[in-house]
């Protein structure tokens, strides 16, 4: 039973206007697609929201040609100062329309409104604002006096942070003087298409940003296209491998931001309540649909029992349900396919001998949902300790010494992120130094900022996004 | 028979793995000839197993080498330059055997020593140039710093010495460990260079040198799941694609240097290609 009864506090859907069908945004205009249109579904209800065009090979050709033309005639020759002004405009329009876009994101993706409103949208606008400032200062970024853009960038993004991943891709590409063809994920195309309208409101020259929708085949056509100079992908490691093979031996530059299986390490001297909050945020933020999610809890044996007890008590207060309810902590799983994958891995966890626990939790009758889940007694060999689940499932392991913690944390082909919880500064830095991961959060987790580079070691990908380092991905150096 | 001419003691050219000089486990060798076509020596013809042994040695050496202070790595690299300079005459002779004229051989050795000294000085400056604090919008101290990517597999170009130096120094200066396939036509100076490394306080396994057939060895290096990055500078244009495809298996960083080894300023791209940027966050508060 709830300690407190919460009345529903739904955010109004009136601010969004979802059309029955959407086209491709190519060369500044919405056009039909040659492929079979598909439906985007609202994860919280399982019902179709809109029909979306699918780009075929001819559409990809058209989009790449438009981007090439815009690169050669407008965007390439334009001064950095003027490019900056367009990006500042976009940042401002995103701020102005942030509530609309947040609601649309929550409807199409299933993430809680509190998150899309307070995390995603502010970061989206900040990303454009930050990179706008770089556009006329690239000669000071440490990549030579007058670094040149690459040309046309093909960008394929995932469904977990649809608009934020778009911002991570488009803002630096445009700031550095490239034009883009971007493909959003097939389950979450709506905010990218709304962004096309933002570009129009900003009077961005046609062809600088092209948004083409479609499934995996559209993405394959785009990254394999001879007319692009750069491929940027965020998504699963398996698809990343396929793209790396496609791009192998060509002149196309490649950056990849792929999967993760991050360790969140809690030492016995950590402030336990703060660490509980951090661990909860690390794995249940965005339903665990986060490549850098802290999906492996490594807790020091001496405090494991106490910590897990507090963690369970905290998990019992998580509110799972309507993404548009402002009280919701954990929203809907993005798709039926993802739900099936999470359920499959959770079953494997039980089968392999780990102990499964979830708080009592009423899940809505329709839509895609998965209760926050904790596995204890997990061995490193278990699938739930090795494979990316990409859902609200935490695998808890224990350790005795800092050396053992580091060894277990690094015992994965991934290397995107990690967390350390300790009040001892020297120990924190010692551990942070040894973790083979691109982002280390100490006494915090899942913090993002356009000024801080993000990206992985090992099989979590190539290159960085954000900060000064992120510019390198879009410059010819 | 009488003769006042002494019969010289010739060197057996072997591989350099884990700080030791083993023969190829395959027992194979191949004849190396000089510019005139005359026999110089038999070089070891390394096998797939030798590649694997070299990767194991490089992986084992990685934690220690990457944990050395940059100052210490810089000192060891400088020591390598000292040892190289000390053997100047030997290298000039070997380069002349490999077909270089007297002036060219001397110039190549000088350039190799100078390049090595240039890289030695980078060890404790790279993080200052490639890293920075991140001005984030919140109460956090955030910094990004470069770290070595791990085990780097390199296929060195044909050049006997400067190409090798240019492939090796930028890899190990930042704390990576290396497995290098040496020049196929002129492998002997590479093995003599290994003797320089072996007497320079460079920990065993940081550099592992293989001689043999590039086409035979490169695919095993490219497909090895415990190699983090691949330098294909010494590979023919047409061979890049299959090797880069094999490298995708564990998403190796693939690099191919467009800068000629004899460029006046090699730039930092080759060092940066084998770095990872780590971003660390910590809250600020009382």
From TrEMBL, chain A:
The active site is at 257. This is Aldehyde dehydrogenase family protein. It comes from Actinomadura rayongensis. Residues 32-476 form the Aldehyde dehydrogenase domain. One of its GO terms (molecular function) is oxidoreductase activity, acting on the aldehyde or oxo group of donors, NAD or NADP as acceptor. Pfam families: Aldedh (PF00171). Keywords: Oxidoreductase. Belongs to the aldehyde dehydrogenase family. InterPro entries: Ald_DH/histidinol_DH, Ald_DH_C, Ald_DH_CS_GLU, Ald_DH_N, Aldehyde_DH_dom.
From TrEMBL, chain B:
GO terms for molecular function: oxidoreductase activity. Keywords: Oxidoreductase. The keyword Repressor does not apply. The keyword Oxidoreductase applies. It comes from the Bacteria. InterPro entries: Ald_DH/histidinol_DH (IPR016161), Ald_DH_N (IPR016162), Aldehyde_DH_dom (IPR015590). Residues 35-254 form the Aldehyde dehydrogenase domain. Pfam families: Aldedh. This is Aldehyde dehydrogenase family protein. It comes from Actinomadura rayongensis. The lineage of its organism: Bacteria, Bacillati, Actinomycetota, Actinomycetes, Streptosporangiales.
């Amino acid at each position: 039973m709830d300690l407190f009864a919460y009345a529903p506090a739904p955010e109004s859907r009136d601010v969004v206007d979802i059309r029955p069908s959407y086209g491709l945004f190519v060369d500044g205009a919405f056009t039909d697609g040659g492929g079979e249109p598909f439906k985007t579904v609202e994860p919280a209800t399982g019902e179709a929201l809109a029909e979306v065009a699918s780009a075929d090979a001819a559409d990809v050709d058209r989009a790449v040609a438009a981007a090439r033309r815009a690169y050669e005639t407008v965007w390439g020759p334009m001064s950095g100062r003027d490019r900056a002004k367009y990006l500042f405009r976009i940042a401002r329009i995103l701020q102005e329309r942030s509530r609309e876009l947040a609601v649309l994101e929550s409807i199409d993706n299933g993430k809680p409104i509190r998150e899309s409103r307070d995390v995603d949208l502010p970061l989206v606008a900040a990303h454009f604002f930050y990179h706008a400032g770089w556009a006329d200062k690239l000669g000071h970024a440490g990549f030579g006096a007058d670094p040149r853009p690459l040309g046309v960038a093909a960008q394929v993004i995932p469904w977990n942070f649809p608009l934020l991943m778009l911002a991570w891709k488009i803002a630096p590409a445009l700031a550095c003087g490239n034009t883009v063809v971007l493909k959003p994920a097939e389950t979450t195309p709506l905010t990218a298409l709304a962004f096309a309208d933002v570009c129009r409101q900003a009077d961005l020259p046609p062809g600088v940003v092209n948004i083409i929708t479609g499934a995996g085949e559209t993405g394959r056509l785009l990254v394999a296209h001879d007319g692009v100079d750069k491929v940027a992908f965020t998504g699963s490691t398996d698809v990343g491998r396929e793209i790396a093979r496609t791009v192998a031996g060509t002149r196309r530059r490649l950056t990849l931001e792929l999967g993760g299986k991050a360790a969140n390490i809690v030492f016995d001297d950590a402030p336990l309540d703060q660490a509980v909050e951090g661990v909860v945020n690390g794995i249940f933020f965005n339903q665990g649909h986060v490549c850098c999610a802290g999906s492996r809890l490594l807790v020091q044996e001496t405090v494991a029992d106490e910590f897990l007890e507090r963690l369970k008590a905290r998990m019992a207060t998580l509110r799972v349900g309507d993404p548009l309810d402002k009280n919701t902590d954990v929203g809907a799983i993005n798709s039926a396919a993802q739900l099936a994958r999470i359920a499959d891995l959770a079953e494997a966890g039980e089968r392999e001998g780990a102990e499964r626990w979830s708080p009592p939790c009423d899940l809505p009758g329709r839509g895609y949902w998965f209760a926050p889940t904790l596995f204890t007694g997990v061995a490193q060999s278990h699938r739930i300790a090795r494979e990316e689940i990409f859902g609200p499932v935490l695998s808890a392991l224990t350790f005795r010494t800092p050396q053992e913690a580091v060894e277990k944390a690094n015992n994965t082909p991934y290397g995107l992120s990690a967390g350390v919880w300790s009040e001892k500064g020297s120990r924190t830095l010692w551990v942070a130094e040894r973790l083979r991961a691109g982002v280390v959060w100490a006494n915090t987790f899942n913090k993002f900022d356009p000024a801080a580079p993000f990206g992985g070691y090992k099989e979590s990908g190539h290159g960085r996004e954000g900060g000064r380092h992120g510019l390198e991905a879009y410059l010819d150096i | 028979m009488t003769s006042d001419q002494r019969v010289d003691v010739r060197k057996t050219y072997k591989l350099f793995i884990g700080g030791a000089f083993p023969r190829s486990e395959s027992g194979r060798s191949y004849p190396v000839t000089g510019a005139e076509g005359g026999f110089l020596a038999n070089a070891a013809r390394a096998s797939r197993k030798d590649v694997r042994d070299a990767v194991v040695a490089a992986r084992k050496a990685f934690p220690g080498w990457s944990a050395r202070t940059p100052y210490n790595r810089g000192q060891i690299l400088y020591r390598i330059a000292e040892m190289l300079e000390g053997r100047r005459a030997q290298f000039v002779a070997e380069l002349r055997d490999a077909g270089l004229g007297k002036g060219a051989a001397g110039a190549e050795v000088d350039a190799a020593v100078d390049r090595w000294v240039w890289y030695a000085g980078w060890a404790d400056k790279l993080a200052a140039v490639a890293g920075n604090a991140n001005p984030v919008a919140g109460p956090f101290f955030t910094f990004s710093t470069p770290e070595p990517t791990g085990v780097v597999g390199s296929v060195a170009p044909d050049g006997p010495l400067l190409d090798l130096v240019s492939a090796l120094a930028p890899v190990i200066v930042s704390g990576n460990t290396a497995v290098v396939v040496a020049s196929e036509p002129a492998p002997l100076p590479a093995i003599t260079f290994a003797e320089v490394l072996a007497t320079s306080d460079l920990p065993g396994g940081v550099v592992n040198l293989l001689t043999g057939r590039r086409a035979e060895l490169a695919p095993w290096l490219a497909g090895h799941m415990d190699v983090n990055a691949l330098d294909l500078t010494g590979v023919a244009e047409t061979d890049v694609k299959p090797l880069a495809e094999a490298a995708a298996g564990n998403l190796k960083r693939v690099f191919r240097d467009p800068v000629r080894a004899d460029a006046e300023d090699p730039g930092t791209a080759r060092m940066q290609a084998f770095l990872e940027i780590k971003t660390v966050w910590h809250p600020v508060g009382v």
